[in-house]
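We were asked to recover a plausible sequence for a given structure. The inputs and outputs are reproduced exactly as logged, with field labels preserved.

PROBLEM: sequence recovery
POSITIONS: 358
GIVEN STRUCTURE:
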């Protein structure tokens, strides 16, 4: 039986939108007008913690029995040395929770004027993200700021929330405050919400929640096809994807962008494929980095697998298990892309063997 998940969808849009107002305000207050010392990550830390506090305390009111797999935990904030950071986070989270109600917001979710939370409640909310994940039952997964490096550069980042039921993503919402509604008009309106519900399709909305448009990936067109990939070469191997691109004879350069905004772009027809190949450091992908994105792909007409052609498994715990990369593209391009990926993986394994032997 397929469930409608109407309330969960409305809730996820509301929570992500509220968290996006918070992260935009953190950027304007702490990054834009201050000259940060290179490598200072404190603004993103403030944003990460307070956005997770907001989403998680809303979840506690709306769905008190649902466990949460969240990226952050409050251990650093509970330490005596975390006092000033804690004060900032409490102030920002309460500012976001008490903001006026907007489209689809419901006061019972603990939002709107008068909804301040105590320090302890907010720290507990952050720590409720400590669920270990697994194969059975309902759970939510939160990435309060995905693409932290993009956030600090004033470029792309995303606030991500998904509902997983029995290891299947059922609802996913992505908020991308800096993403143009149309990538070819980068100076026009910015701020997108991407929403998907299993079996009901994917949509793009303005960050206000207005003007929904259904998303369908266009068919494979080699002349305009390009890869959406990480900005950070440490997160996804640029050299591997450029070899794959050469095998396919692609002429367009990759579109490099931080965060799951790449998945939203893919779903609406930008680029052609999401490409994430492991860099060989033994990193395990986290479920919150792919849950919403994977549903956006399948609900807009795409296929998402690892480099072996197997589906991503959201039932293994907080990670996706051993890292075989992620490839996502429109249905009619997936087999072609997969075979090019496998050819390059084989080449690279042979080269590694040779260099070990010599
Ligand atoms: N080594 C390695 N390999 C793969 N992935 C890694 C690695 N290290 C970190 N991460 C995760 O990458 C998340 C952001 O990656 P993105 O590809 O979305 O953006 S970018 O790499 O910053 O361009 C990033 O998410 P955030 O921490 O939420 O920003 C990390 O979870
Ligand atoms: Mg992330
Ligand atoms: Mg994050
Ligand atoms: Mg992180």
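RECOVERED SEQUENCE:
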């Amino acid at each position: 039986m397929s469930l409608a998940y109407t309330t969960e969808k409305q809730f996820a849009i509301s929570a992500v939108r509220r968290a996006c107002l918070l992260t935009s305000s953190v950027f304007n207050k702490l990054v834009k007008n201050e000259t940060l010392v290179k490598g200072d990550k404190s603004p993103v830390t403030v944003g990460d913690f307070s956005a997770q506090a907001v989403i998680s305390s809303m979840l506690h009111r709306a769905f008190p029995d649902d466990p949460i797999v969240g990226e952050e935990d409050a251990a650093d904030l509970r330490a005596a040395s975390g006092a000033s950071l804690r004060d900032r986070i409490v102030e920002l989270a309460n500012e976001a929770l008490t903001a006026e109600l907007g489209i689809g917001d419901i006061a019972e979710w603990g939002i709107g004027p008068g909804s301040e939370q105590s320090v302890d409640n907010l720290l507990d909310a952050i720590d409720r993200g400590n669920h270990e994940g697994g194969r059975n039952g309902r759970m939510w997964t939160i990435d309060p700021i995905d693409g932290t490096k993009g956030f600090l550069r004033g470029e792309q980042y995303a606030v991500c929330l998904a509902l997983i039921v029995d290891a299947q993503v059922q609802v996913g919402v992505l908020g991308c405050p800096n993403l143009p509604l149309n990538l070819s008009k980068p100076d026009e309106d910015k701020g997108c919400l991407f929403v998907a519900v299993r079996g009901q399709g994917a949509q793009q909305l303005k960050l206000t929640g207005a003007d929904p448009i259904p998303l369908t990936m266009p068919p494979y067109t080699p002349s305009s096809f390009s890869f959406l990939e990480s900005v950070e070469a440490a997160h996804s191997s640029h050299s591997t994807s450029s070899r794959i691109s050469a095998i396919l004879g692609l002429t367009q350069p990759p579109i490099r962008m931080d965060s799951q905004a790449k998945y939203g772009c893919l779903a609406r027809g930008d680029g052609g494929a999401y490409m994430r190949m492991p860099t060989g450091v033994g990193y395990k992908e986290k479920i919150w980095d792919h849950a919403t994105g994977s549903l956006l792909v399948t609900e807009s007409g795409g296929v998402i697998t690892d480099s072996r052609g197997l589906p991503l498994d959201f039932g293994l715990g907080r990670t996706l298990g051993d890292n075989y990369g992620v490839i996502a593209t429109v249905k009619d391009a997936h087999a072609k892309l997969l075979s090019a990926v496998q050819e390059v993986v084989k080449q690279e394994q042979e080269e590694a063997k040779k260099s070990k032997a010599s």
